[in-house]
Specification:
Length: about 350
Amino acid sequence: MLNIYGLTRKQLEDYFESIGEKKFKAQQVFEWLYQKKESDFDKFSNIKKDVIEKLKNDFTNNKIKIIRKQSSTDTYKYLFELEDKNYIEAVVMVHNYGNSICVSSQVGCNMGCAFCESGRLKKVRNLETYEIVEQILLIEEDLNIRLSSVVVMGIGEPFDNYDNIINFLYIINDAKGLAIGSRHITVSTSGLVPKILEFANIPLQINLAVSLHAPYDELRSKLMPVNKAYNIDTLMNAIKEYYSKTNRRVTIEYVMLKGVNDSESDAIKLAKLLKGMNVYVNLIPYNETNHIEFKKSNKDNILKFGKILQDNNITVTIRKEYGGQIDAACGQLRSKEVE
């Protein structure tokens, strides 16, 4: 049985038309689910009882479960149990300008990035659309807050779960859904080139971030096995094509690994690689874990690296560190308790 939280408004419209009902009922259902935050079909007071019975027969409204919540000064990490007893995590970051969530898209991950804790468990399965949507709904309810921005950068490679991610984006962006502005939504990929090109044709103004982490193929292939399938030249061409179709600037994610990819020479190579492209680089201080040997670049190295890029007319930001005390920082999420 389908979960009601996994359907876009268009899919619900098609459903109502298929049972001989007016498609505007989909908007009413969306308003109950996402505006009024009501999951009990029997309380949808402006929908006829016979239609309610059809909804109850055709859809479930079961939700994933919060198993544990950890918190630090400005960060909350949630462990969720899915109906099949698999586990995922999501992280909320509290800012003075709003609250953002980093959601997971898969149980485990097959990308195998050498520096990432999340990939220590290989992919078990993709998350269904409703399991991604409900990460937001349950956390909003638990913290009694509105989440105003979303990044799909948790456990998993989003573009390896493409169809469910696209449905998720439509639901959270829908004005009658969670109404999160498209410019406040970012999807991150390790570089699945065919999906980047497909994503360029989606009629939503969603932000795209690409994890690069090295300026040349030999090093990137060691850090990110995906580079063996889609090397840097192929990836850069895809980003250029994406920009030509969407006119949206792409974020280049670059994790700073001490003595690995943080030298002045690496910065010069990166500047040369990105010259003339409408991108900006997000330098990410590495978040160390107990299981992986990489170390964080020191602050001076990160600043020097960024200065070289800026001197070459490339916009640079340095990501603020959130959640390191509770293993909730970038690259530290795990889909189950593995030691």
